[in-house]
Amino acid sequence: MTALDLRDPSTFPSRRVEAWKYTDLARVLRETPPPSPAVTIAPGGPFAALGGEELAFANGRAVGADAFVASGEQTLRLRFVSDATGTGHSAAVRIAVRPGARLTLLESHEGSGSAYVANTRIELDIPAGAEVTRVVLIDEPADAISVAVTSVKTAAGAVYRQTTVTHGARLQRQETHLAHGGEGTEIVLDGLYALSGERHSDLTSVVRHNGLNGVTSQLTKGVVRDTARGVFQGKIVVERGADGTDARMGHHALILGERAEVDAKPELEIYADDVQCAHGNTVGNLDESALFYMEQRGIPADEARALLTQAFLFEVVDRIADEGAREEVRSWLTARL
After folding, report:
1. Pairing with 288, which of 4, 48, 186, 231 sits 20 to 30 Å away (CA)?
2. Which residues constitute the domain of residue 162?
3. Per-residue pLDDT reduced to its tens digit, 210-247
4. Judging by beta carbons within 10 Å of its beta carbon (0-12, 13-18, 19+), is residue 323 exposed, middle or buried?
5. Is residue 294 in some structural domain?
């Protein structure tokens, strides 16, 4: 797990670190950035219309509480707001969920200014009988650098659904480490990236199955244009004794620019018997026959490409369990395609 300290350049990983092979942080961040100033932010964010409680960090500083405990049925809007130029900041938050609780966690990374560095750490504990639906929406400037590491611990009988949606930054990495509780635990771990210009996004995850009969479903899709670069690294580890595991991982990307790039590294490590595990990975272009079909029916080429791209990405959006969050993400993504 990444242990980044913005005060210590020796912690900035380079491509010589295998897990950072495609996202060379040390190349773009060579020295400690000066600290970001304190800023004042107003309540809101992209999920404001969905209500719930708000837990916010402004340039790394907590606006009020810096932790949250969920009970009953709750919605929490977790906001990481960056308003800085050429500076760096870090934030850390711990979220706990009581047994039997149902939490909708609507997380946003909201960036303004330019060339800042944001470092975020999240710890999330989900006990037996609890259910968490987490939707992460990342909207940052094209010249920002951001690294977010989330550690999720699930007990047997927990449900955790995660969807991460981003359009990248100069260098951006969302890293998820999940300890799977096994019996009765269901995990959905989805991601979506839509990149253009010179933006870079890295979605990295490690899921460790530690108990019997655990279920994981993972689907990531991406579209890259111009000279953008998308990175997907997904690893599912089935430890000894985790018999009966059912784990499925898929990554699929479209490259819509001659100089755009996608790097994908799906992995399975299986040390148990009687498991059902599979992974798939495809990288290509839009279906030319589908484009031809649509153009023959009077749809302009640009509109046809946009419609096919939307249909490709919206498969991930449609898997978001919360209807309100699903529609917000759909609108946000449509405006950026």
Report:
1. 231
2. 9-285
3. 999 999 999 999 999 999 999 999 999 999 999 999 99
4. exposed
5. no
